[in-house]
Design goal:
Arc Repressor Mutant, subunit A, three-stranded antiparallel β-sheet
Length: about 200
């Protein structure tokens, strides 16, 4: 146990301030239980801090702002980078990211090609839902979110005001990118978006 603790401590002292830490970072240096115990001890020592279940970080202090705590988006981005997976906002969070709702969801859902998981971050609940590789090949910053938002709402349940907002957003997307993303969505969503944009040409 002491060797595992020492190995992890030495590794963490070489990390950048603010960097996120996951138990999986140290797989191979000991058992899962030994790694978690070492991280728990390092939390007690103040070398690292616990952000959420299974998520830690190296404290970073700004002279003016004080301690800088990583945000939920930082955690998701870092987790995706470490595990070499793709993640994309889905559900109510996609609606919020597009500005289609002012409500900030307390449950953020992401689709991913990684393993499904769920963890609590402060008052936020973050959930990763496994999906097909095809759905994650969409490239547009706007169109990929719009497709997720339309799937969340249901093509037959979108009111006129929301349709107008979606149309305005989709017209800002690079056209070749939009065409690329439409080829990767469902027939219903494709038809909905095509009809929505044709409306603009009348």
């Amino acid at each position: 146990m002491e060797k595992v603790h020492t190995h992890i401590r030495n590794a963490i002292t070489r990390m950048k301030k603010g960097e996120l830490i996951f138990p999986s970072d140290f797989y191979g240096s000991g058992t899962d239980m030994a790694i978690k115990k070492a991280l728990s001890r390092l939390c007690e020592e103040g070398l690292i801090k616990r952000l959420a279940h299974g998520v830690y970080y190296v404290p970073q202090v700004d002279p003016d702002l004080g301690e800088l705590r990583p945000g939920a988006d930082d955690v998701v981005k870092m987790l995706a980078e470490k595990e070499k997976i793709k993640v994309r906002p889905a559900g109510a969070y996609a609606l919020h990211k597009l500005g289609l709702t002012t409500q900030v969801p307390t449950r953020r859902v992401y689709i991913t090609d990684g393993h499904p998981r769920q963890f609590t971050f402060g008052r936020l609940q973050i959930k990763f839902k496994s999906t097909s590789h095809k759905r994650l090949e969409q490239k547009g910053k706007i169109s990929s979110l719009a497709i997720q938002a339309i799937e969340e709402l249901g093509v037959g349940k979108i009111d006129e005001a929301t349709k107008e907002k979606l149309r305005s957003l989709l017209l800002q997307e690079d056209y070749p990118t939009l065409l690329h993303d439409l080829k990767l969505t469902t027939v219903k969503v494709n038809n909905f978006i095509v009809k929505l944009l044709k409306k603009d040409k009348k």
